[in-house]
Every structure is written in C-alpha cells, then in structure tokens.
Design a protein that fits this description.
The protein has 383 residues and is mostly helical. It contains 15 helices and 4 strands. The strands form 2 sheets. Strands 1-2 form a two-stranded antiparallel ribbon. Strands 3-4 form a two-stranded antiparallel ribbon.
C-alpha cells in the first residue's frame, strides 16, 4: 500500500480551496487545546506538578504526577507524559509547516479575503511554531542562564522532515525569535488597524460574534484572542527575551503591550466579575479581561473533574502548596477565598466546575469553563 501517495491525494483535496486551509488552521488550535498539551499537561497537570504548585504526596497527586514532581524522569509513568508532549507538539509543528508551505505557494487571489487572509494565516502559523518550540525548549533543554553547551532540540521548519537535526541553544533561540518577530510584524496591521475594534474588546477577543462586529463573513476571523495575534506575539516575545537574558528587548516588548493597556485596550479584571464574595461560584477565576492569548476546550471541566471523581482521594486531589504564605495572611482576599480556598478545600479551583446551579453560576461556568489561558497582559508588569 502506497501510504505516501494516499496522503498526497488527501492533502491535495484538502488544500485545493482556501476553505481547506482554514480547516487546517482551526485543527492546529484544536490540537493545541488537547489534554496532551495546554488542555492538561502544560496547564494544570504535568507542568504544575513539576513546578511544585501542589503538595507532593500520593493523596494529592496521581501516580504519574507524583513521580514527575519528584523528577523521576526515567520512570515509565513520567516517560509516557513527556513522550506524549513531545510527539503532539512536533506533530502540530509539522502541521504548521505544511500550512505555511501551502499558503506561501498560493497567490493572494486564492484566498477569499485576498492578501489579508494570506498574511493572517502566515503570521499565526509562524507564531504558533515559535511558541511550541519555545515551550519544548524550556521543558527539554537547559536554561540559557546555565551556559550549557551541546545540542538540545530540533527546530523544524520544513514539511515533511523525517530526520530533524538537534541544534544548539543559541540556534534554537535564534529561530524562535525570528519566527515570533515575523508573526509580530505580519499581524501588527491586522490587529492594530483592521480588527482593532475586535481585539480592543474583551468580548471581541474571546467570545464575540461577527454579527455585531465589522468582520469578514464567517467564523474564521472571530475570537482574535483565541488565536495567535499581534499582542500575543509581542507578549510572548517579552517572555522569550526575558528567558534569554535580553532584558532590554524584553522590556521593549512588554512596554508596547503596556502602552496599549494604558489606552484601555486591555483591562484589569473588573470588580463586577468578582461577583458576591460570599458566593464564590460567581467569581471569574480566569480573569478574562486580561487575556492576550487563550485556547479553548469545551471538555475542560470534564477532563479536570474525572481526577476528582475517579479517586479515593478526590477531596485532597491537587491541593495547593502553602498558599497562605502567598497572601501574607490576608485570607479575605477574594483571590484566596475564590480561586484557592473555595469550599474550604484549599485547591486552586480555576479548572473545577462551580458547584452552584443558579443561572448566574452556570453562566460563569459557560463563559469561562472552556478557556485555557496562555498569556495575560498582567505578566508584562513582571518584566
């Protein structure tokens, strides 16, 4: 059976119209939101266990996360997680490369929205490719501050690439910066001029409909905050440069986001979102107004809850580590009472479904439940 030929035929059929490319782009974001990556492992799962956000006991953590928190990298449970992260991320990177190559080959007239759409897709895919490589680098390579020598991870830019070559830290970071700077440049006029009314509104970034915004027809241009955009690329560059130790460049990019915040494009989470502190089910724990990039998975609650419901230790699962110290004894802080000590369980319950059944509680759950925060403008204040 000639699998390669079959794949080529399927790909040719998919990309013969611009709608097929749109479907492929949507597929990239869907896969990023899976439990293999940001829907679990790179949010409340593996990465939080390794970072010791949780108490490291067998009653608090599942078996695989317990071994991960103890840095038992050769343990089969841990290897299954890291292998999953590695393979899923590079699979998505391959999809990005395929899309980039297909889009670059096409004339602008191929796309329904002409040059706008072509530039948008390229900018998004360059940015996603950079972000995934950066997170892989942070997980699987020594930090730049260690000045470690030798090869680290591959930086894959072509499709297919069946024998990717591992590169040095400097080479990987250079490629990450180049791709993210490319994304920033391509997306700047789109998000600061063409779609400024969309991205300057919290509702426009993550829940708006094009029925009330000046957008091209169809859903592809909706939800700019749920896709790589100019401000996400800029904020991620600030994060990347900070990790590299280039503090001037980090500040330059952080300050750019900050200046748009001062123009009220991005806001601190309104007190109205905190609801009635005596009823913590009404609190928006994901602080939606602050999000610059957020993914979406409508099974977030189900994916998290199954670890609570399928365990004898459900009431102590994912108990946070000494959060009282973080709040310096101010236990009336709504972030402590609503985001951490909700129901007295001492868990960071951003990911857990509110217990309330009222309309307001369910509306909160519906609006914020699917969200997977990637980066906020508030991070820029720490740079």
């Amino acid at each position: 059976m000639d699998v390669t030929s079959s794949e080529k035929i399927l790909q040719k059929d998919l990309f013969k119209e611009s709608q097929g490319i749109r479907m492929a782009v949507n597929g990239v974001y869907k896969e990023m939101s899976s439990t293999s990556l940001y829907g679990q492992n790179l949010s409340w799962g593996f990465i939080s266990a390794v970072g010791h956000n949780y108490e490291v006991t067998t009653s608090v953590l599942t078996t695989n996360l317990y071994y991960a928190a103890n840095f038992a990298w050769d343990n089969s449970y841990v290897e299954s997680i890291t292998d999953n992260i590695w393979s899923k991320a590079y699979n998505i990177i391959a999809n990005c490369n395929n899309i980039i190559q297909m889009v670059e080959e096409q004339d602008t007239m191929f796309f329904k929205e002409k040059a706008l759409e072509k530039t948008l897709i390229l900018g998004e895919m360059y940015g996603v490719r950079a972000m995934l490589h950066f997170d892989l680098f942070r997980l699987f390579a020594p930090a730049p501050i260690t000045n470690a020598s030798g090869l680290t991870i591959p930086y894959v830019t072509t499709y297919p690439d069946k024998r990717p070559i591992n590169l040095s830290s400097d080479e990987v970071l250079k490629n990450i910066v180049n791709d993210m700077e490319m994304a920033k440049t391509m997306l700047a006029p789109i998000d600061t001029i063409k779609f400024r009314s969309v991205i300057s509104s919290p509702a426009g970034r993550y829940r708006q409909s094009n029925t009330w915004r000046n957008l091209p027809e169809g859903d592809f241009f909706n939800y700019r905050g749920q896709r790589m955009n100019f401000f996400a690329a800029t904020a991620l560059l600030a994060r990347i440069y900070l990790y590299m130790g280039d503090y001037d460049k980090a500040f330059e990019n952080a300050d750019l986001v900050y200046r748009f915040h001062k123009r009220n494009w991005f806001r601190w989470t309104s007190s109205s979102y905190q609801g009635n502190i005596s009823n913590v089910d009404y609190i928006y724990t994901k602080r939606p107004d602050e999000l610059l990039l957020v993914l979406s998975n409508h099974k977030n609650y189900e994916n998290y809850d199954k670890f609570m419901l399928e365990s004898y230790y459900g009431t102590s699962r994912f108990r946070m580590k000494k959060m009282e110290l973080l709040f310096a004894g101010d236990l009336d802080d709504f972030r402590f009472s609503g985001w951490y000590n909700r129901y007295g369980l001492k868990r960071y319950l951003t990911w857990q479904r509110p217990a309330g059944t009222s309309y307001t509680a369910q509306n909160v759950a519906q609006n914020q439940g699917p969200l997977i925060p990637i980066i906020r403008f508030s991070e820029m204040y720490h740079i």
